[in-house]
Amino acid sequence: MKPVRLAVVSGLTLGTVIPVHIYQQNAWWQGPRAPFRFENDWTYALNVDKLGHMYAGYLLSRVFRYSLEWSGFSEHTSTFYGSVLGLSYQLYVEVEDGFHRVYGFSPGDAFFNMIGATIPLAQWTFPVLRNFTLKYSYWPSTGYRSELKAGQGKAFLDDYQGTTVWLSMDPHFLMGNRLSDAIPPWLGLAFGVGARDLDESGGGRRQATIALDYNFSRIETGSSFLHAVLTVVDFYHLPAPGIRLDGKRVVFGIFYP
């Protein structure tokens, strides 16, 4: 363990959690609290919100894992406690929702939080799963931009019509050596799920997209700093050509999100 680095990580974590808590307090938890209760919302946003919770748990767990590993902990220990810390923060948010007069504690959200947070553990246990990652892309929807112009701003994380969650795959492990060498190591495929025309009654239409993907962290740079930057970039799905199934339409284009 490297005490100075651990102190830096602890300070940055505390310095991040407090502002995020204040942001969430203003964005979601305003007003009087209510007795704790459960609220099932499986039909909300055609489950895109559930995929968002899964991605958030995955993202937090990996960030905590890298932070602990940088602080000197072993890969196994960092992966385990990274998942524990990622899930703990997500559950803290759900408990706060449980005391809100509108939201309530969502078992569905908590379930997908747990799935996302434990993916890094599964990847450490079964190395083949390291060829798959979760990614996220976002572009403000028309409705969200209209609300901002009208002074009815809300957290962009609730703008599920502008959100797509992606499962990215590095296909090289499925190819023979000759074909694998012919394709750049940073080029992959991604399957994305989103929704449009959402209403408050569980209606709307789903979108499914298959597109090329870029796994820049697989590029050998020789620089630990540059590798860290590329790893951060790889949490997001960048614009790429693909095929989208939008309702009954099949669309070809460059999609983001």
Annotation keywords:
45% helix; globular; alpha+beta; 19% strand; 2 domains; 257 residues; 6 strands
What does this structure look like?
This protein is of the alpha+beta class and 257 residues long. It has 2 domains: 1-125, no CATH class; 129-257, no CATH class. The chain is 45% helix and 19% strand. It has helices spanning 3-27, 48-70, 75-98, 107-125, 142-149, 177-182, 224-233, and strands spanning 132-138, 163-169, 187-196, 205-214, 240-246, 249-255. A hairpin with a 2-residue loop joins strand 5 and strand 6 (249-255).
**Distance linking N and C termini:** 40 Å
What is the number of E strands? Answer: 6
What letter string, H or E per element, gives the SSE order?
A: HHHHEHEHEEHEE
- Number of separate domains: 2
Helix count equals 7
Radius of gyration: 20 Å
The helix fraction, in percent, is: 40-55%
Which regions contain 5 or more consecutive residues with pLDDT less than 50? none
Major sheet summary line: 6 strands, antiparallel
In order across it, which strands form the biggest sheet? 1-2-3-4-5-6
Shape: globular
* Amount of beta strand: 15-25%
Judged by helices, strands and strand pairing, the structural class is: alpha+beta
* Average of pLDDT: 91
